[in-house]
Specification:
- The protein is mostly beta strands.
- Helix content is about 10%, strand content about 50%.
- It contains four helices and 17 strands.
- A 16-stranded antiparallel barrel has the order 1-3-4-5-6-7-8-9-10-11-12-13-14-15-16-17.
Length: about 375
């Protein structure tokens, strides 16, 4: 018995000393918004009674713990744990996105291999100024806190590729950069395996209600270069996955999606274009629904402590009745870096949704933002 206790103590001491070798850090982020919007049409009606002016405590406030260590083999090991604000209490919709997740990464001359509740490779390979411009809108989803989107059941297409930013369990590989070229691949056995409001991992995948895919693979190739101060980044990717079955009469099309992006930069100016096209992926086989695609064009400019940005995002979808639906979101934003991790910003937005030629949503407004990273 005493020998057993000694062995256990020795193992714990070994683990503890190994942990002490790791470099650890703790950081965080907070954000708050106040906004005023004018919504002339909601759900196709001019007399709708919606008024969401006011304040919001944001989507992405969080605490992040990171640790890193170098193994005797020279391989670098890194771990992180993100805890999103009130996610377990289901106060936000971010329980299922990678801002609330954790993962491990092993990197070396071979590139890097990561696994866990982590971002898909598309988050780091494609240019996405819809998320990196001042205010991080419209990608951040805060606009929806200040207007009411169409709830009539119409689909308008996806503004980002399938499984973007989701924290389902996955494994991914990123190569090193060779003469400007790099590639990455991720694999998700079940895109329905993600954190729920209770904080537990879910492993169910009800395709009918969730629209999820199994065996989801994402491959991206990227090239970067710079000449005479002009930078260029181009990326091209393919996604595939199993669509599943919802009863004998409801087979769904497998995922077959193409994504590409291009970014040009000069000085403090950056302009990018991105498109995702998944056709009729995930729709009922032999049906008319499809043409699911999204495009974005963004421009940003940084000058000292000031940042400026403008984005336009369009989506399209053909529904099961062969009717065309579309949406368009425009944002104009600016922020000022106060120093010490604090920023102030303003975002003007305009949103239109059209289904079968009729305007279902028409809203515009302005949002102020204060954020603090520490």
């Amino acid at each position: 018995m005493n020998k057993t206790i000694l062995v256990v103590i020795s193992l714990l001491a070994l683990v503890f000393t190994s942990v002490l070798k790791a470099e650890m850090s703790l950081s965080g982020f907070q954000e708050f918004f106040a906004g005023s919007a004018d919504q002339s049409i909601a759900g196709g009606n001019t007399e709708h009674g919606h008024d969401k002016n006011g304040m919001s405590n944001g989507n992405y406030s969080r605490i992040t713990a990171t640790a890193s260590a170098t193994l005797d083999s020279g391989i670098e090991v890194g771990g992180y744990y993100n805890m999103a604000r009130s996610c377990r209490g289901s106060d936000t919709n971010n329980c299922g996105v990678a801002v609330n997740g954790n993962g491990l990464t092993f990197s070396g001359n071979f590139g890097s291999i990561g696994f866990g509740e982590i971002f898909d490779v598309g988050a780091g390979m494609y240019s996405r100024q819809t998320a990196s411009n001042p205010g991080a809108e419209p990608d951040g989803g805060m606009l929806g806190h200040f207007y009411t989107a169409d709830g009539g059941g119409a689909e308008y297409g996806r503004a980002n590729e399938t499984n973007y930013a989701q924290n389902d369990m996955k494994i991914k590989y990123n190569s090193n950069v060779y003469s400007g070229f790099s590639f990455a691949m991720s694999y998700s056995p079940n895109s329905g395996s993600k954190a729920k409001a209770s904080g537990d991992d879910g492993t169910t995948n009800n395709y009918i209600t969730d629209g999820l895919f199994n065996d989801l693979t994402h491959f991206v190739g990227k090239y970067t270069m710079e000449m005479d101060g002009v930078g260029l980044e181009v990326a091209y990717g393919q996604l595939s996955g199993n669509g599943g079955r919802g009863g004998t009469a409801n087979d769904h099309n497998d995922l077959d999606e193409t994504v590409y992006s291009a970014l040009i930069s000069y000085g403090g100016v950056k302009v990018d274009y991105r498109k995702n096209d998944r056709g009729n992926s995930g729709e009922v086989k032999n049906g008319q629904a499809g043409n699911d695609e999204g495009t974005s064009i963004c421009a940003t400019y940084a000058m000292g402590n000031m940042g400026f940005g403008a984005c336009q995002v369009k989506t399209n979808f053909i529904d099961a009745s062969n009717l065309s639906n579309s949406s368009e979101t425009r944002t104009y934003s600016t922020d000022y870096n106060l120093g010490g991790g604090a920023k102030l910003g303003l975002i003007y937005f305009d949103v239109d949704q059209t289904a079968n030629g009729a305007t279902r949503t028409d809203a515009d407004g302005i949002i102020s933002r204060v954020s603090f990273g520490f």
